[in-house]
Amino acid sequence: xxxxxxxxxxxxxxxxxxxxxxxxAHVSVAYAASETDFIPGAxxxxxxxxxxxxxxxxxxNDARLRAADSEPGQWMTHGRTWAEERYSPLTSINSSTVARxxxxxxxxxxxxxxxxxxxxxxxxxxxATGEWSRxxxxxxxxxxxxxxxxxxxxxxxxxxxxxxxxxxxxxxWEGKLYLGALDGRLICLDAAxxxxxxxxxxxxxxxxxxxxxxxxIVKGKVIIGNGGAEFGVRGYFSAYNAATGEMLWRFxxxxxxxxxxxxxxxxxxxxxxxxxxxxxxSGLGGTVWDSMAYDPExxxxxxxxxxxxxxxxxxxxxxxxxxxxxSSILAVRPDDGHLVWHYQTTPGDQWDYTATQHIIxxxxxxxxxxxxxxxxxxxxxxxxxxxxxxxxxxRATGELLAxxxxxxxxxxxxxxxxxxxPIERPEATWSKTEARVTPGISGGHNxxxxxxxxxxxxxxxxxxxxxxxxKPDAEFHWAPGYINTSESWRGVAAELEGFEPxxxxxxxxxxxxxxxxxxxxxxxxxxGQGIPAGVLATAGDLVFQGTTWGKLRAYDAASGALVWxxxxxxxxxxxxxxxxxxxxxxxxxxxxxxxxxxxxxxxxPNSNPGRILAFKLDAHEALPPMPDTPIKPGMGDKPxxxxxxxxxAEMLTRGRALYAYNCSRCHGxxxxxxxxYPDLRHASKDVYASWNAIVLGGAFSSRGMASFADVLSPxxxxxxxxxxxxxxxxxxxxxxxxxxxxxxxxxIPARWLAN
Length: 755
Known about the structure:
The protein is α+β, with helices and mostly antiparallel strands.
C-alpha cells in the first residue's frame, strides 16, 4: 500500500521538517520514503530544508565539548562535560527561587521497566533512551515527541541481562547519535530523523554479552564497552570510527591464558597476576559496562573495569594473584588504546567490588605529604567504587593521594597509601568458610551517578549500607549461562526463599556529601530503604535527586537541608540534568524503576509507567494520572490456578535451589515477584500445562523469557514447577502477614521468614 505524505495546513517549517524526517526514518510511524506517491512542491522544499537542518542538529565535536562551560544551557555528553562532574553552571533555579519550581511538561513513552538514562539536550532537542534500548527525541521546551527509534532487540536477550533491559543513554557527534543496544550492536542514527545510518556488532553473539552503558566519543572515536561478567564473558572495550563504524582498536581487560599469545603488551604484563589453573573457560569477566571520563589536556581516557565471572578467587585463580585488570581504573591513549597507567581498587576481588562506578575529574587543592604539607592544586580523578572507599588519584600518573571509607565497611581496615593496596581483614575471606561482609553485593555506591560541585567543593554520592553473606560451594562448577556464576548467589538466594521482595534485608540508603580535600563526610541525608538515585549538582547551590517512592527533591548543597520536592508518580533511579531553552532553566529526569534492585526489593503499587519530566520556574502543568490498574504481586490478588503436585520433600528442596539460582532474579525471592515481572504464584493453568514448552522450549522468548534448556534438564524444570506450585498454595505466616500490614518496609531477618 502506498501512502501520500502531506503536511497539515498551517504547519511551521520546523514541524514540516520533523514530519518529513519521520517519513524517512526507521521509526515507530507508518510512513516510509518508498511508500510516497508524490511530494507537493511545498513539501519538497521542506525536504531540502530538512537536509540542511540535519547538518546542524546535534553538531557536537571536540572543540564544542572542550568549551562546554561556555554553553551552560547544553547537556552534550553523558556527564555534561568530558570530566563527568554532572554539575550545571546555570543559576536561575537556586536556593532563593527553587520554591517556584513546577512541572513544565511530561512525556510518557509507554515503558514499564527500568529507566536509567541520562538525557542529552543539544540545541533545544532532548535525546533519551529507555527499556530495550529504544531512543526518544523530544522538544526540550515542550516535551513534544519528534521521533522514536526501536532497534528491535530480540526478547530472548533479556535472559543475558543481569540487571534489567535498561540503557543509560546515547552519545552525540557531528549530527549523529550513537546507541549501544542490549544485544551488543553499536548503532549510528541521524540525529534529525532517527534514521539508522550504520550498525556494528561489537560482541560475539554466541556469548551472553550485553550493552547497557552510554558510549563516549573522543577525537571522533566512539568508545563502547559491554556487560555479562556474571554469565561468563571476557571483558573489553573498543574504539570505532564515528563516521564509518570501522573498529580502530580493542583493549581486553583480562588475558586469554597465562601462556599467550597476548593481544597486547598490557595483557602480557597482566598474565603473571593469574594462576595457570585459572578458570579460563569462564572468560574471567572484567567487563567495562559504565564509567568513563576524558582529560583533553593529558589526552587520557579513564575507564572503570568490573568484576570477575567466578567470584570465589580460590576457584577463579587457585593460588592467588591480583588478577589484573579486574576492579581497576585504566588510563589509556584514545588514539590507540595504549595503557599509560592503572590502579586496582580491589586486588584479587572476591566480593563483586567493581570499579565501574562513576569517575569524576577535578582540580582540587590537595595537601602535600612532604615536606611542609601545604595544599597545592592537583589534577585528580575521584571515584567511590563498590568497595566502600573514596579514592583520589593523580590523573596524570595514577598516584594514590587518598583512600578513605565513605560508608561503614568490614572487608578491610584501610588502604596503605604507600603501596596503594587495601589491608584486608582475614575474616572477610570466604574461599573456605562463610563470611558476612559489608558493603554487600550492591556495594557502597553502584551505577547511580554521583556529582561534584566545584562551588561547594563536595562530591554527592548515592550510597548503600548492607550486609551480605558469601558462602563457598565445594560442588561449584563453571557453567555458562548461570546468573553470577557465583557460589555465593546460590546459597543466599535459596536462604532468602521466604523473604518478602518488598523488605530490604539489612539495606539503608543515603545521599552522602563527601569532602575530598578534608577527606571526610560533610553531611548525609537518610533516605531509608529503596534505591538511591543518581545526582545533579548546580551552581544555584542545589543538589537534585529522585526517590524510589515517586519524588524529585532538591537539597541545599552546603547543608543537605531539604528545600523542595515534587511528586513524580513513578519512582526514580536515573540522575537529573539541567539545561536552558529560550532563556529558561529546566531540571529534567527520566523516571521508571528497575535494575537488579527494582526486580527484588520494591513493591510496585502501579504499572511503573516510564516518564520524562521537566521542571521550570513558575510552571504549573498537571502530572499525568497514574494507571488505574495497579500491579498487585501479593497473595490473594488473583486466584491461584497452580495444580496441587504430589512432590517429595527432596524434590521441593531441589526445585527451591534451582529456582533460586535460575529464576529468582526476575520472578522474585521465594516466588514473590515485585511486579516488574510476572508473579508465578498466579500463573494460569495454561502456563503450568505448558511449563516445559516455556522453560525449555522458549515459547515466550519474544516476551523476554528465553529457553533455559542449555542449563536445565526436564527433571530440573519439573522440580522448579513443583516448587513454584507449592509456593502458590503457601499461606504466609504471621511475620509475613505483619510485614505486609507495615507496608513491606520492615527489616526482618530472612531466617525468620524461612519455611
